[in-house]
């Protein structure tokens, strides 16, 4: 089992990779670094919120869980 700290660090590094990737793709498409960074940050923040809500909804569903 992973420690909460390790999970947190993995989540942060994953988000940073996503932001960097989105920035590069948006920069290639738009040619504007400011627009690219703003798009990447807003997509990351929006994705974080929707993922959190998605997880909270799934936490109320027992399907697929095994009780020990």
From TrEMBL:
Chain segments annotated as transmembrane: 12-30, 36-53
Keywords (A to Z) from UniProt: Membrane, Transmembrane, Transmembrane helix
DUF2061 domain ranges (all copies): 9-59
Keyword Membrane included in the entry's annotation: yes
InterPro entries xrefs: DUF2061_membrane
Domain of life (superkingdom): Bacteria
Keyword Transmembrane found: yes
Name assigned to this protein: DUF2061 domain-containing protein
Organism annotation: Ahrensia marina
């Amino acid at each position: 089992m992973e420690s909460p700290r390790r999970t947190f660090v993995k989540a942060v590094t994953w988000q940073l990779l996503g932001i960097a990737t989105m920035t590069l793709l948006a920069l290639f498409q738009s040619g504007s670094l400011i627009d690219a960074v703003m798009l990447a940050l807003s997509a990351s923040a929006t994705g974080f919120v929707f993922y959190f809500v998605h997880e909270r909804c799934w936490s109320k569903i027992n399907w697929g869980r095994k009780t020990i």
